[in-house]
């Protein structure tokens, strides 16, 4: 349907006339509606911007004073390691810090045994002391206390409390600087707050405990109430997960010690706007957002407060526009009615003008449609001297040229088809020749690789390829073993009495013996192990196994397999067994003496009677 409107000249002319009348009415609409509404929204946005800056300034005061506490602590020039071991000194220190920082709600210390001593603001003339009942983890009680922390009137008790399991304690252990925790309930009461904690260590780096201070959400909420702009407005602090940290609306208060989340469905107003205002690229613009909720227009202003790296607090101010002016709403509706009336007049006169202008155009359209169906004899007859008449005459000339051109195209069509068929046949032959050539090159490359890397008699790695691969393995940056220096094990194997064997049976049988030996060894190795022929009857094996027992197992498997699998000599119908002496050494990162050590172990095995293995671990 949209295509019909965009291609229909009559509709476009009518739309143009209507738009002309509508544009004429724009000044009235701007006076009655747009200008006033924009001024109102801009005014609200400026008020909200100022209010959000006030809120962020208050948050700055909160968080700046929190960080100042630890600076104050360092300026007191006291021995903290000695203070924390004396309850009276520790309580006096906490009371002193708390009395100098009025925005801090709780200040406390938890030692490395799980005992807690905390002092917080309870009423205007009193503090509350929360203290473990023993010097280690266990029961905990809260007391009414004076400004020095003294007092024994019990307010509440808890059977067991371990501060070391809390988020603020664990986060503090990760850094030597003060670190903010997530929001969590208090030690005894379920009052939610956020902690700035800092680890305390002795001179040897041992953890003595963790200092902490709390900002409760109740205090933050009291500050937010001072930033409300109207009776029905709401001021909120939220995190990026959709949890309401603090709000001037009592319905947003935490429940059962848990922050209320937008996703819970208990905040339908916030749930309506959350998908729009939650993306970082939106709320970091500090902009106003208008929306409708339950038939009423609202304005939401968003900004953010960076708590720490990758942790932002969203500041939301929401209010119905009707709180600011109800008279403007009536004026807006009146402006809409006037605009709609003017558009109706434009549509009426546009339809009349369109009918007058489009009558010859419709005839021209019908004629063009008939010609598009191949009815070349259908000429356009329009006796007019204006632009439409000129268009009709030009169109008739174009039809004559088009018919002649199409006839020429039909004449060349068969020739084009014949040439395409011939070209396709030639391409097919060329492709077959390319494929045959590719196969020949692949086979040649495989043969060259076999000759370059493998011994033609035994079909194991030749001397050059084995030592090149051995050097590569030995100089890799990292290794898979117990020590980052360990790379694996080098085996040097020499067939026992091979010269006498050749003299007795001949070189042909000797070659068969080498093949037999290579095959038996290969069956005893893993896929990732490498065996190579490095001399006449001398072979080498590289394995990246870790432990000596694994290397011993490989050597034992080779000796056992050779003793159980004989070589059959066809000429003499004799089954003979081959034995081997093996020297093994552990290879380290960039070790240049591996072969010498393994060869030395080989000669030890030869000297000890042959058909055995000697291992040198060479541990660094």
UniProtKB/TrEMBL annotation:
Sequence intervals crossing the membrane: 12-33, 334-352
Domain GGDEF: 486-618
EC number: 2.7.7.65
Cofactors required: Mg(2+)
Coiled coil: 409-447
Residue ranges annotated for the HAMP domain, each copy included: 355-407
GO cellular component: plasma membrane
InterPro entries: dCache_1, Diguanylate_Cyclase, GGDEF_dom, HAMP_dom, Nucleotide_cyclase, Rev_trsase/Diguanyl_cyclase
Catalytic activity: 2 GTP = 3',3'-c-di-GMP + 2 diphosphate
CDD domains assigned to the protein according to its UniProt record, in alphabetical order: GGDEF (cd01949), HAMP (cd06225), PDC1_MCP_like (cd12913)
Keyword Coiled coil: yes
Subcellular localization, as worded in the UniProt entry: Cell membrane
Principal location class: membrane
Domain of life (superkingdom): Bacteria
Annotated membrane topology: Multi-pass membrane protein
NCBIfam families, sorted: GGDEF
Protein name stated in the entry: diguanylate cyclase
Native source organism of the sequence: Photobacterium profundum (strain SS9)
């Amino acid at each position: 349907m949209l295509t019909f409107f965009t291609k229909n000249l009559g509709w476009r002319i009518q739309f143009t006339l209507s738009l002309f009348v509508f544009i004429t009415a724009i000044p009235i609409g701007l006076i009655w509606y747009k200008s006033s509404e924009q001024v109102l929204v801009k005014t609200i946005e400026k008020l909200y911007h100022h209010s959000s800056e006030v809120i962020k300034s208050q948050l700055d005061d909160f968080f700046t004073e929190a960080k100042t506490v630890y600076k104050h602590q360092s300026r007191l020039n006291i021995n903290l390691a000695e203070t924390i071991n004396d309850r009276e000194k520790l309580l006096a220190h906490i009371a002193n810090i708390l009395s100098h920082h009025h925005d801090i709600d709780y200040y406390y210390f938890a030692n490395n045994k799980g005992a807690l001593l905390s002092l917080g603001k309870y009423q205007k003339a009193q503090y509350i002391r929360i203290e473990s009942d023993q010097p280690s983890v266990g029961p905990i009680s809260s007391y009414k206390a004076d400004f020095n922390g003294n007092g024994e009137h019990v307010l509440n008790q808890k059977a067991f409390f371990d501060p070391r399991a809390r988020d603020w304690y664990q986060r503090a252990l990760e850094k030597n600087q003060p670190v903010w925790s997530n929001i969590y309930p208090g030690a005894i009461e379920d009052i939610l707050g956020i902690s700035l904690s800092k680890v305390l260590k002795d001179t040897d780096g041992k953890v003595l405990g963790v200092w902490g201070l709390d900002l409760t959400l109740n205090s933050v909420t009291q500050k937010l109430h001072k930033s409300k702009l109207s009776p029905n407005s709401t001021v909120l602090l939220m995190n990026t997960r959709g949890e309401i940290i603090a709000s001037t609306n009592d319905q947003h208060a935490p429940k059962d010690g848990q922050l209320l989340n937008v996703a819970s469905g208990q905040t339908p107003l916030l749930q309506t706007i959350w998908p729009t205002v939650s993306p970082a690229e939106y709320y970091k613009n500090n902009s106003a957002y208008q929306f409708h909720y339950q038939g009423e227009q609202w304005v939401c202003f968003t900004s953010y407060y960076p708590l720490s790296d990758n942790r932002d607090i969203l500041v939301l101010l929401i209010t119905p526009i009707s709180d600011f002016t109800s008279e403007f709403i009536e004026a807006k509706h009146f402006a809409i009615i006037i605009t709609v009336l003017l558009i109706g007049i434009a549509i009426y006169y546009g339809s009349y003008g369109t009918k007058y202008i489009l009558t010859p155009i419709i005839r021209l359209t019908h004629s063009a449609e008939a010609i598009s169906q191949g009815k070349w004899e259908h000429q356009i007859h329009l006796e007019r001297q204006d632009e439409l008449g000129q268009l009709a005459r030009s169109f008739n000339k174009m039809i004559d040229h088009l018919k002649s051109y199409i006839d020429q195209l039909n004449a060349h069509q068969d020739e084009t088809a014949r040439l395409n068929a011939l070209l396709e046949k030639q391409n097919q032959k060329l492709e077959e020749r390319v494929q045959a050539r590719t196969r020949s090159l692949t086979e040649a490359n495989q043969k060259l690789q076999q000759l370059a890397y493998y011994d033609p008699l035994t079909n194991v790695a030749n001397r050059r390829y084995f030592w090149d691969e051995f050097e590569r393995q030995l100089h890799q940056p990292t290794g898979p073993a117990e020590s980052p220096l360990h790379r694996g094990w080098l085996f040097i194997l020499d067939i026992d009495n091979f010269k006498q064997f050749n003299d007795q049976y001949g070189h042909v049988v000797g070659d068969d013996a080498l093949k037999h030996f290579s095959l038996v060894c290969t069956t005893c190795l893993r896929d990732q192990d490498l065996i190579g022929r490095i001399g006449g009857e001398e072979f080498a094996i590289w394995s990246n196994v870790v432990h000596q027992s694994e290397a011993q197992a490989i050597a034992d498997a080779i000796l056992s397999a050779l003793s159980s699998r004989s070589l059959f000599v066809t000429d003499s119908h004799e089954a003979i067994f081959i034995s081997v002496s093996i020297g093994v050494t552990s290879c380290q990162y960039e070790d240049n003496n591996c072969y010498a050590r393994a060869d030395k172990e080989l000669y030890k095995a030869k000297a000890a009677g042959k058909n055995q293995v000697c291992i040198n671990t060479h541990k660094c």
